[in-house]
Amino acid sequence: MRSRRAHRLAFYALMLALAMIFSYLETLIPVPFFVPGMKLGLANVVTMVVLYKIGAREAAVISLARICLSALLFSGAFGLIYSLAGGALSLAVMILLKRSGRFGMTGVSVAGGVCHNFAQIGVAALLLETGALLSYLPVLVVSGAVTGWLIGMLGGLLLSKLARLHL
Amino acid sequence: MATEIPKNHKKRNDAILIAALLLAAGILFLATGAAKKDGAQVCVYVDGARAASYSLFENREIPLAYDGHNTLKIEAGAASVTDADCPDRLCVKQRAISKQGETIVCLPHRLIVKIEGGDAPDVDGVVR
Fold first, then answer.
1. What is the mean pLDDT of the segment spanning A124-131?
2. All domains of chain A, ordered by start, with CATH?
3. How many beta-carbon contacts under 8 Å exist across A and B?
4. Reported CATH class of domain B41-116
5. In whole angstroms, what is the distance from residue B54 CA to residue B50 CA?
6. Does the beta carbon of B108 lie under 8 angstroms from any beta carbon of chain A?
7. CA distance A6 to chain B (A)
8. What is the pLDDT of residue B71?
9. What is the sign, positive or negative, of the torsion defined by CA atoms of A63, A67, A70, A74?
10. Are residues A128 and B48, on separate chains, in Cβ contact within 8 Å?
11. Can you give the pLDDT at residue A95?
């Protein structure tokens, strides 16, 4: 029992570290054409893996820790509210879709990607008190779907590599 | 869950979900993009409130100093942000805008540059 807890703790630490690396990598990738809220969301691979490997609560904790740490290290407090909103909505929707049992990992991840962008543009529209930002929605839905699909594939790949790991 | 849904059903549901999202995006795009007309003026909003407006027909560079510095450039009926001292400088990376309703956003400075219609700049346009 004790060693199982230790295994889990080590796994969380590893996943959080991986998420931080992904967040850092993402700051290095230049966005080819800019729409507010658009990004690859590599760190979401980790959220997916924890969600499928362990559970919803653990995924939420890891993702919250990752968002706060990467805001401190990379983007500054200014981006925190956007990241939090995006992370919270996308995770909530991913948990619900996964629980429904009707969707595969790809579908769950795509919904998560779209909801992430949705929440970010929503917060921006609220903070700036303008509806003008909503014209970015179509682009953000498509980019969220594409990145979500990629992230879902990566997450599936990582999970299959981790299949022999019993936690 | 009493019965596990088979994998190929999940895949089909995934495909339906993705198709529905893309369809919604397409409809949104057509709905928002169809009525795009050339703009006549470029308006600057700070914190959601209109702070200034300039004619798009006059080529010039305008320094904006609100929460920070952004340089607005107007050239050939299009506006772009060419310089800024915000941390991410994403406003500088955004493309030039010329159609009504198009925007350039600088989130750190809470600044929005927006193209609007009309024949001439408003009377309350800022004179510098």
1. 78
2. 2-161 (1.10.1760.20)
3. 99
4. mainly beta
5. 12
6. yes
7. 31
8. 94
9. positive
10. yes
11. 96
List the structure tokens of B17.
């979900």
Residue A55, CB-side half-sphere exposure with 13 Å CA sphere: 4
Per mean pLDDT, which of A120-124, B36-40, B124-128 is the most reliable? A120-124
The tokens describing A29, both together, are 């990738």
Residue with tokens 């991840």: A109
Q: What is the pLDDT of residue A124?
A: 83
Which of B13, B42, B43 should we substitute to test contact with A (largest number of A Cβ atoms within 10 Å)? B13
Contact A124 B32 (CB under 8 A): no
Residue B78 makes CB contacts below 8 A (sequence gap 6+) with B56, B96, B97, B98
Token pair belonging to A78: 């200014």
CA A110 to CA A151: how far, in whole Å?
8
What is the structure's pLDDT at A79? 77
Percentage of chain B beyond pLDDT 90 is 41
Highest mean pLDDT of the ranges A37-41, A135-139, A147-151, B102-106: A147-151
Which phi and psi angles does A62 have, rounded to 5°? -60, -40
A interface mutation test: which of B66, B89, B102, B107 has the most A CBs within 10 A?
B107
